[in-house]
Amino acid sequence: MTQGLFRKGLTALALAGAVVVAAITGVQPAAAEKIKVAAIYTLPVEQQWISRIHKALNTAAERGDIEYVYSENVANTDYERVMREYSEAGQNLVVGEVFAVERAARAVAKDYPKTAYLMGSSFGPSGDNFSVFDNWIHEPSYLTGMIAGSLSKSGVIGMVGGYPIPEVNRLMHAFMDGVREVKPDTKFLVSFIGSWYDPPKAKEAAFAMMDTGADIMYAERYGVSDAAKERGVMAIGNVIDTQNEYPGTVVASALWHMEPTIDKAIEAVKSGSYEAADYGSYSFMSQGGGSLAPIDPKLVDEKTLAAVKIREQEIRDGLFRVNVNDSEPKSSK
Questions:
Q1: Domains of the chain by start residue, with CATH
Q2: How many other C-beta atoms are found inside a 10 Å radius of the C-beta of residue 281?
Q3: Which of 97, 110, 189, 283 sits between 20 and 30 A of 168, alpha carbons compared?
């Protein structure tokens, strides 16, 4: 009897604590075990960046932690409307990417203080419930640069990106820094295709670079690896692992794992402790948010693999810091 009263007392204290937290943050804890999560994507879920978020949310749904719904191919002009619809529907957490609709998205968050928002953004958190994240995989990008530098014989590397925004720029610069550690005099050819998904245009840009002497391609966008495969040139992948799709062509990839970020947000919403925060650090290698895809030892020599392994451990241990440079990368003069 005494133990039963004690347990009831603990339950009451826990509920009281959750109410206090909710009163402070404005975001209400989910009453049921599962929380309702909605995601808004401006591109198809197959697109590499979005696919990582979608994968993490599906993993959480399969675990039974969340009820997950999503909208894809949402135009920027419709983004605010879709955000409001999900918020009105009682979603506990809304996930998305608001790079082109920052002001509108933050305005929505102010109107729905009991809803938690976790958005890909170039800027910081705001209010009590608008958190941000990004794919901070500059660390494994540096490591792929070391591999590329060791493989290049011409000393010319081509890089094809979507748009020169900070999220792309910092990965390119980290890759270039990794190359320079191994081969300081490397020249870079840099091009942006002005699209997040235009494989033919990316392929065309890659061919032009290989015609100018590039013997390694940095495939920030789809289409580059196809061009590399046709020419018998090696490529470096980004965000997702495409090495099985391009065996012998994509030799290394910097991977983004969104699970640590999503899991932290879910945990905070469930406990009623969600508040506006920058979740970017959960994409770091030390948090399990970034990694280097397995390297085929038949494609990379033992000396390079050993050097990369040492540098990777130093990054994880906090003994080596990869520089963050958000400025637009330029071709070498």
A1: 17-134+258-287 (3.40.50.2300), 138-256+301-316 (3.40.50.2300)
A2: 16
A3: 110
Residue type, 202: A
**Global pTM?**
0.86
Q: Give the residue from 111, 143, 106, 139 showing the smallest Cα distance to 125.
A: 106
Nearest to 191 by CA among 206, 178, 179: 206
Q: How many CB atoms lie within 10 A of CB 31?
A: 7
Q: What is the pLDDT, as a whole number, of residue 21?
A: 43
User: Between these two residues, 115 and 14, which has the higher pLDDT value?
Assistant: 115
**Beta bridge partners of residue 97, listed in sequence order:** 120
Q: Fill in the DSSP letter of residue 126.
A: B
Q: Answer whether 41's CB lies under 8 Å from 73's CB.
A: yes
CA distance 267 to 11: 18
Q: Measured between alpha carbons, how far is 16 from 289 in angstroms, rounded to an integer?
A: 34
- Write the single-letter amino acid at 227: A
Number of C-beta neighbours around residue 241 at 10 A: 16
Report pLDDT digits (tens) over 285-296: 999 999 999 999
Helix (H, G, I), strand (E, B) or coil at 198: coil
Residue 75, number of CB atoms within 10 A of its CB:
11
Cα torsion 291, 297, 301, 305 to 10°: value is 30
Q: Considering only the C-alpha atoms of the chain, give the largest distance between any 2 of them, rounded to a whole number of Å.
A: 82
Count of residues for the chain? 333
Three-state secondary structure call for residue 189: strand
Query: In the block, which residue shows the tokens 């002009």?
Result: 77
Q: What is the number of helices (H) and of strands (E) in the chain?
A: 10, 11
Interatomic CA distance for residues 177 and 321, integer angstroms? 12
